[in-house]
Design goal:
Blueprint lengths: L1 H8 L4 E2 L5 E4 L2 E2 L5 E5 L4 E4 L2 H11 L3 E6 L6 E7 L2 E5 L4 E7 L5 H4 L4 E4 L2 H10 L3 E7 L4
């Protein structure tokens, strides 16, 4: 258990109060807003939108990410096929942010790295969360 506690202190993974693994970036062991489905049917959760985007390249596998816009609850899907992403809706953007405090990524920034269906909902979320500093990133044209 000491090894896990040390790795937790270094923020390579996150333990819950009972000492069980809660997250090993980019994966969450508990339900999270960003669901991953690999082509072989395996499903997992990602800690944040940025982590979700890393998994296809990390595993060298096609996969589909499903998420919801945190403002209006609209569905967002990113499907990777042969290294190419297909975004739905096409106007999807990402807010990349973090709180101005120290601590593990799971509490400082993971919930501030989200997909948004469009620029307007990302801006609305940023206004609703002035404690989060960051920027809206364009994901490029489909």
């Amino acid at each position: 258990m000491e090894v896990l506690a040390e790795i937790d202190r270094e923020d390579f993974l996150t333990l819950d109060d009972g000492g069980r693994i809660r997250a090993a970036y980019p994966f969450s062991a508990v339900s999270a807003p960003h669901r991953l489905r690999l082509v072989n049917g395996v499903e997992a959760w990602a800690m944040c939108a940025i982590d979700a985007l890393r998994v296809a390249a990390m595993l060298h596998q096609d996969l589909t990410i499903t998420s919801r816009d945190p403002v209006d609850g609209g569905p967002i899907t990113v499907a990777f096929t042969d290294g190419t992403a297909r975004w739905e809706p096409a106007e999807t953007v990402i807010f990349a942010g973090q709180r101005a405090k120290t601590g593990p990524a799971a509490t400082v920034c993971c919930d501030a790295l989200n997909f948004f269906a469009d620029l307007s909902t990302a801006k609305a979320w940023a206004r609703q969360h002035p404690e989060v500093h960051g920027r809206i990133t364009s994901r490029g044209k489909p």
